[in-house]
Design goal:
This protein folds into three domains: about 280 residues, Aldolase class I (TIM Barrel, Alpha-Beta Barrel); about 90 residues, Recoverin, domain 1, CATH 1.10.238; about 120 residues, 2-Layer Sandwich (Double Stranded RNA Binding Domain), CATH 3.30.160.270. It is about 45% helix and about 20% strand. The chain is built from 18 helices and 16 strands. The strands form four sheets. An eight-stranded parallel beta barrel has the order 2-3-4-5-6-7-8-9, surrounded by ten helices. Helix 9 links the parallel strand 8 and strand 9. The protein is globular and about 80 Å long. It binds 3-methyl-2-oxobutanoic acid and zinc ion.
């Protein structure tokens, strides 16, 4: 029997933390469900102490998602660990991931306060004690405790080994060795893992985990070097999203282990046929596009264009392909979606795209689908994704668009009239602008009596042809909050209005939350 490598996904924590957009609980739940389909072993669902929304998302995922262990992150402080314990209380297999800086740079930079000691030597003693206390406290909530030694890639090795030994003695069952800044190179990182394996006396009681960042484009190579030297858990994100240049892309790590099984001799429990779907879902919900040339899941990863390649490929696929697209869930055949496609067909396609909807959500999506299908001959996957973005926001809608009229033309002053439903009451207003979109935004600001600043405005045709769906995303800023609003329609002005209103709804919900939060501070 070959050995197994545990796959730890941190798309919803390290990945989402870095994205410009924050996901709502329901969006996170969709991704978590898809990760369970992919059969990752551990889902790091969030950092509960960072915000009430993150805590709620971890709680929801812990309650709803079966299969993988559900993990929550904390710093080595009691308040964070208690937040993890509470958020994970309903999880079938809870894991707490706690840890602290281990390099001199982190210790001196992040723990400057004298209560951590005056000299580096004093601080190191204190940090080690905090690590031990954190692991002990986490063990009161679960037997599955992972310890991270942040910035291990730049740490003094002797101190790191001492810290890891102490963490195991305190009850850690997994040791995460993060190359937090993506500083190491494969040989060096591999050597660090080997040193840990050979020199930490109690290492037999823990699994070594590798967590690499991509600042030098080496995250996947470093991860594999770690595995070759004894790590048996790999951490990463779908599409490699994450802080700065991102984390190791899980699809690349897993497919390297799988495709080169002859070399590594290791297995994972992953179902690779779910990779493409998962990649699409993460990209769609976070609004981070996958580059066409991205390994494994990029749109060009399995296309051949030069004459020599095409000729060779057509004669014998293996001349230019080392993996089969169907093994990654990249389906060559296509079912055309039209107004005659029933609910069943729609549900099936949505599932293929990674969206599992409850019946009421499906009913709403079906209504929107029919409206689009009536205007277009064929509804493409991208159209569906744009529709779903409109439907899956879990926010209460303070503002709802009732009516929109635009007056515009080559010699007319663009004028927009809008009617909104605000908490059930209809309100109407009009404004002129530099163009129809500007007029709509001004009319919406007037009617809602808000003063959000439009930071960015982006439009893209999600499918081709003059009847294509347009998807608009805007970034709005007000009272220190910055949010992303999205809207889709075959009419780009309507899509703009929807995106602006979506943003205003998010701002309204954030300011409501911050009022509640500040009211509850003693
Ligand atoms: O990169 C890192 O060090 C991390 C830890 C918090 C695990 O993400
Ligand atoms: Zn990280």
């Amino acid at each position: 029997m070959s050995e197994k490598v545990v796959v730890f996904d941190t798309t919803l924590r390290d990945g989402e933390q870095a994205a410009g957009t924050r996901l709502g609980s329901r969006e996170k739940l969709m991704i978590a469900r898809q990760l369970a389909q992919l059969r990752v072993d551990v889902i790091e669902a969030g950092y509960p102490a960072s915000s009430p929304e993150d805590a709620a998302a971890v709680r929801l995922i812990a309650e709803e998602v079966e299969g993988p262990a559900i993990c929550a992150l904390s710093r080595a402080v009691p308040v964070d660990i208690e937040a993890c314990g509470q958020a994970l209380s309903k999880a079938r297999r809870p894991r707490i991931h706690t840890g602290i800086g281990s390099s001199d740079i982190h210790i001196l930079g992040k723990f400057q306060d004298e209560r951590y000691g005056r000299t580096l030597a004093e601080k190191k003693v204190k940090i080690l004690q905090m690590a031990v206390d954190a692991v002990r406290l986490a063990r009161q909530y679960t037997d599955d405790v992972e310890f991270y030694a942040e910035d291990a890639g730049r740490a003094d090795t002797a101190y790191l080994l001492e810290m890891l030994e102490a963490a195991i003695d305190a009850g850690a069952t997994v040791l995460n060795i993060p190359d937090t800044t993506g500083y190491t190179v494969p040989e060096q990182y591999g050597c660090l893992i080997r040193t840990i394996r050979e020199q930490v006396p109690n290492i037999g009681r823990a699994t070594i985990s590798v967590h690499c960042h991509d600042d030098l484009g080496l995250a996947v190579s470093n991860t594999l070097a770690g595995v070759l030297n004894g790590a048996r858990q790999v951490e990463g994100t779908i599409n490699g999203i994450g802080e700065r240049a991102g984390n190791a892309a899980l699809e690349e790590v897993v497919m390297a282990l799988r495709t080169r099984r002859d070399y590594f001799g290791l297995d994972t429990g992953i179902d690779p046929r779910e990779f493409y779907r998962t990649s699409r879902l993460v990209s769609d919900l976070l609004g981070i596009k996958v580059p066409p040339n991205k390994a494994i899941v990029g749109s060009n990863a399995f296309s051949h264009s030069s004459g020599i390649h095409v000729d060779g490929f057509l004669k014998e696929r293996e001349t230019y392909e080392i993996m089969r697209p169907e093994d990654l869930g990249i389906d060559q055949s296509r079912v055309v979606l039209t107004a005659r496609t029933g609910r069943h067909g729609l549900r099936d396609r949505l599932q293929k795209l990674g969206y599992t909807l409850a019946q009421p959500e499906l009913d709403k999506a079906y209504e929107r689908f029919l409206a689009v299908a009536d205007k277009k001959q064929e509804v493409f996957d991208e159209d569906l994704v744009a529709i779903l973005h409109d439907e899956i926001h879990s926010l209460p809608e303070t503002y709802q668009l009732d009516y929109l009229h635009i007056y515009s033309g080559t010699s007319a002053i663009p004028t927009a009239t809008v009617r909104l439903r605000i908490k059930g009451e209809a309100r109407e207003g009009a404004a002129i602008g530099d163009g129809p979109v500007d007029a709509v935004c001004k009319a919406l600001s007037a009617v809602t009596q808000t003063s959000a600043r439009l930071v960015t405005y982006e439009i893209r045709a999600v499918t081709s042809g003059t009847e294509a769906m347009g998807e608009v995303s805007v970034q709005l800023e007000e009272a220190g909050f910055r949010v992303q609003g999205r809207g889709a329609s075959t009419d780009v002005i309507e899509a703009s209005a929807k995106a602006y209103i979506d943003g205003l709804n998010k701002l309204a919900s954030l300011s409501r939350k911050s009022n509640v939060d500040s009211a509850s501070v003693p």
